[in-house]
Amino acid sequence: MELSMLLSAILLLYSFLLLWKLYEQWRNQNCYILDYVCFKPSDDRKLDTEICGDIVLGNKNLSEKEHKFILKVIVGSGIGEETYGPRNIISGRGEEAPLLADGISEMDECFNATLDELFVKSGISPADIKVLIVNVSMISPAPSLSARIINRYKMRKDIKVYNLSGMGCSASLISIDIVRNIFKSHPKMLAVVVTSESIGPNWYSGNDKSMILANCLFRSGGCSILLTNNPDLKHRAKFRLRCLIRTHLGSNDDAYGCAMQMEDEADRLGFRLGKGLPKAATKAFFENLKELAPKVLPLRELLRYVASGLLSKKGGATAPVNFKAGIDHFCLHTGGSAVIEGVGRSLMLSQNDLEPASMTLHRFGNTSASSLWYVLGYMEAKERLKMGNRVLMISFGAGFKCNSCLWEVVKDLDDRNVWEACIDGYPPQKLANPYMEKYGWINDQ
């Protein structure tokens, strides 16, 4: 009898410990953002109308027709004149062979500024960071950019480090996905994701129109993000990750080749944006949405869509999916005004929904993988993000890729962040286009 009771007690204790372990694993499955800091370069790096015109007209490899083409692209881009560029281009060295030092200096400015502020704001020590992921697509020096950060902040010897390159504008969500997967098997971790893009050493000095476009659209920027799965820190968090979907069309030759770093006919290195890009982006976008919809939409919306599909087989029209039924805010990649408007039409979004992305494009431009975080910062600075709200991020990238993720706001947010000095002026009654005022005559030719 005593032996039976002892065995029962041991079995009960074992069951309790097993349940406790499962509970602890469940608690650590969450991925929280504690804070994030976007980079605001110094004013001497601003690309106003005059500087942009001087850079374009100063390229001796371009004909008058090609000068007009570039200026026309800038006029219609939706980009304002307070965006930022790399120092070597502003100083007029764009046609010279780029220096590795230019690229590293450009990255150091961003990394050091955002990480310094992030550690101060959060009160977290660099020595406490157990995961570091750095994504910069167009430069990969040795030692790596992640190693430079580890060296500067004297981070721990057992830190898990990932240095991503070539991932394009989708890179920051890929980094978040890596963090999420590490969190699943390692409890109470702190991770930092650093995202930026190297513009200076990758400036295209030739005359191929498909490669000139990158010069017109991309701007300097970056962001550092602090994440954790430690349930003891969740009261300090801003966002909780609900789901993340990655779509990759690299097996398709046309999608693979529509956005590619390569040499032109004169062996000048640049980044080519092909005519197949819109088609590849549309395909990747809808493939991603098909997987995303069941994970983020309420059951009633899914049933409505299924019912609509059944009715369409009898001659009726299929009603589009209403993503606003399960999402409060849309954080769209600022690839350009056409990209923002195109995604907006597909998701049936209002101008108010598109405002954060459009204003970010105007103020900071397309900063590649960090663009999403400037858009998120705009929403926060405008005090739109309230506890329980759901925020959808959508990004595109070479490969060709479309990545999306859903964040839940875990407390009311009102940090004015990188937008502090200008947020009260957005959105203006009329969005000024200084490039139109100076170069608008090009559209009449």
Give the SSE string: HEHHHHEHEHEHEEHEEHHEHHHEEH
For this entry, what is the oligomeric state of its chains?
Answer: single chain
Count of strand segments? 11
Biggest β-sheet description? 9 strands, mixed
Q: What coarse outline follows from CA principal-axis ratios?
A: globular
- Per DSSP, the total helix count is 15
Q: What's the CATH class of the largest domain, please? A: Alpha Beta
List the uncertain runs. none
CATH superfamily of the largest domain: Thiolase/Chalcone synthase
CATH topology tier name of the largest domain:
Peroxisomal Thiolase, Chain A, domain 1
Mean pLDDT: 87
The Cα radius of gyration reads 24 Å
How far the N terminus sits from the C terminus, by CA atoms, comes to 100 Å
Q: Return the domain count.
A: 2
Task: Describe the overall structure.
- This protein is of the alpha/beta class.
- It is globular and about 95 Å long.
- A nine-stranded mixed β-sheet has the order 3-2-4-5-1-6-11-10-9, sandwiched between helices. Strands 7-8 form a two-stranded antiparallel ribbon.
- It folds into two domains: 28-236, Peroxisomal Thiolase, Chain A, domain 1; 239-419, Thiolase/Chalcone synthase (Peroxisomal Thiolase, Chain A, domain 1).
- The protein has helices at 2-27, 49-57, 64-75, 87-90, 100-122, 145-153, 171-183, 209-217, 253-256, 277-296, 299-312, 337-346, 351-364, 371-381, 434-439, and strands spanning 32-38, 131-135, 160-164, 190-196, 222-228, 239-248, 259-263, 269-273, 329-332, 390-397, 401-409.
- The N and C termini lie far apart (100 Å).
